[in-house]
Write a structure and sequence with these properties.
Layout: H1 3-11, H2 14-50, H3 66-76, H4 87-103, H5 122-143, H6 147-178, H7 183-188, H8 212-230, H9 242-245, H10 255-280, H11 299-320, H12 326-355
Helix pairs in contact: 2-11, 3-10, 4-5, 4-10, 5-6, 6-8, 6-12, 8-10, 8-12, 10-11
C-alpha cells in the first residue's frame, strides 16, 4: 500500500471509512459469487467431457448462463421445513456455512496489495474460520430431526476434523521455511521462478535445499488430497454417498437453504485451490521471472490461472477416481497422513535450525 493510499484511509471519518469498507466487501462478494457461478459450470463441463457427453449447453451461449438459471430456480422454490425440526437452527445452519466460507477469503491475497486484510496471522485465521464451518454442518444435520442427516453430519464432522489435523502439520512445514504466517510473505518468499516454489524447490544454486524437494512435493500432494476430504469432494464424499445416506446432512434441505449449503461447499473448494496456489505454487508470481518492471501477464492473472488449474484437478478427481469406503478414508487420515506430516514437521524444522542460512 502506497503512502498516498495510507494517508487517504487515515484522513477518512469513521462513518466514511465504514461505508467504503462495506462497499469494498460487497464488491468482493459479488465478484467472487459471479466467478463461482462459472466455476460450477466448469465443474459440470469437465465431468461431462470425461463421460463423453455435452453437459449444460442450452441456457445462454454454450450454456454459460446455466448457473444463473439454477440460482433463479432455487430462489423461487418453496422452502419446506420438516415437521418436528428445530426451525431456527434449521435455517441458521446453511447461513453459518456460507458466511464462514466467505469470511475465510478476507485474508487471501490475489496480487501484490490486493487483499482485504493483510494480517500477520493470516494462515492461522484461515484455519480457525475453516474449523468453524463444521458447526453449520453439525447443526444442519441435527436440526433436521432425522437420523440420516444426523449420521451424515457426524460423518462429515469427523472427516473434516481428522484431515484438518494433517493440514495443520503440513502448513507448519511452510511456516518454518518462510518464518511467517502472513500469506503475502509466503507468496513473496517464492519469488524468482518455479524452482523457488515450495512444491518444487529446485534451486541448484542452493544445493542444501534440494534435499527438501521430495518432502515438500509430497507435502503438496498430501495437502491436495486432504483438501478433497476437507471439502467433502469425491472420492471422499462419504457424508453424501447416494448409496448409503442419500445426500447426507443436506437430505432434508430444499430451495434456498440447500443452495446456500452447496454454494458454501464450492466456496470452500475454491478457497483450497487458492491456498494451494499461495502455499505451494508461488501465488501470483510467474513460473519464470524475467525481471520486467511491467510484465505482459499481470500478477492477478497468474494467480487466477493457477487457481483454475487446481479447480480443474478437483473436477478431474471427481470424474475418474472411485469413492473410498469410510473406514479407508479415516485410516488414510490417521494412520498415513498424520504420522507422515508429523515426521515432515520434525525434519523441516530441524533442517531450518541447522541449515537455515543455506536455504
Amino acid at each position: 500500500m502506497t503512502a498516498q493510499m495510507i494517508q487517504f484511509w487515515t484522513d477518512l471519518t469513521p462513518f466514511a471509512w465504514f461505508g467504503l469498507k462495506l462497499a469494498q466487501v460487497g464488491a468482493f462478494v459479488l465478484i467472487l459469487s459471479v466467478i463461482l457461478a462459472f466455476l460450477i459450470l466448469m465443474d459440470r463441463k469437465v465431468w461431462a467431457a470425461v463421460q463423453m457427453r455435452r453437459g449444460p449447453n442450452v441456457v445462454g451461449p454454450f450454456g454459460l448462463l446455466q448457473s444463473f438459471a439454477d440460482l433463479l430456480k432455487f430462489v423461487f422454490k418453496e422452502i419446506i421445513i420438516p415437521s418436528g425440526s428445530d426451525k431456527g437452527l434449521y435455517i441458521l445452519a446453511p447461513i453459518i456455512t456460507l458466511v464462514m466460507a466467505f469470511l475465510a477469503w478476507a485474508v487471501v491475497p490475489i496480487a501484490p496489495g490486493w487483499v482485504m486484510s493483510n494480517i500477520n496471522i493470516g494462515l492461522l485465521y484461515v484455519l480457525a474460520i475453516s474449523s468453524l464451518g463444521v458447526y453449520g454442518i453439525i447443526i444442519g444435520g441435527w436440526a433436521s430431526n432425522s437420523k440420516y442427516p444426523f449420521m451424515g453430519a457426524l460423518r462429515s464432522a469427523a472427516q473434516m476434523i481428522s484431515y484438518e489435523v494433517s493440514i495443520g502439520f503440513i502448513l507448519l512445514t511452510v511456516i518454518f521455511l518462510v518464518g511467517s504466517m502472513n500469506l503475502s510473505d509466503i507468496v513473496n518468499a517464492q519469488a524468482g521462478g518455479f524452482w523457488q516454489w515450495h512444491m518444487f524447490m529446485l534451486d541448484f544454486s542452493k544445493p542444501m535445499s534440494l534435499i527438501l524437494f521430495p518432502i515438500m512435493f509430497f507435502m503438496g500432494v498430501m495437502f491436495f488430497i486432504s483438501a478433497l476430504a476437507e471439502t467433502n469432494r469425491p472420492p471422499f464424499d462419504l457424508p453424501e454417498a447416494e448409496s448409503e445416506l442419500v445426500a447426507g446432512f443436506m437430505v432434508e434441505y430444499s430451495s434456498t437453504p440447500y443452495l446456500l449449503f452447496m454454494f458454501g461447499e464450492y466456496l470452500n473448494m475454491t478457497l483450497m485451490c487458492a491456498m494451494f496456489t499461495i502455499l505451494f505454487l508461488g501465488g501470483w508470481h510467474a513460473p519464470i521471472d524475467f525481471g520486467w518492471e511491467n510484465p505482459i501477464i499481470p500478477p492477478v492473472l497468474w494467480f487466477t490461472l493457477k487457481c483454475l488449474f487446481m479447480f480443474f484437478m478437483f473436477a478431474m478427481v471427481k470424474a475418474i477416481v472411485p469413492r473410498y469406503r469410510y473406514d479407508q478414508l479415516m485410516r488414510l487420515g490417521w494412520k498415513v497422513f498424520l504420522p507422515i506430516s508429523i515426521a515432515a514437521v520434525i525434519f523441516v524444522s530441524s533442517w531450518v535450525v541447522f541449515f537455515g542460512d543455506k536455504l
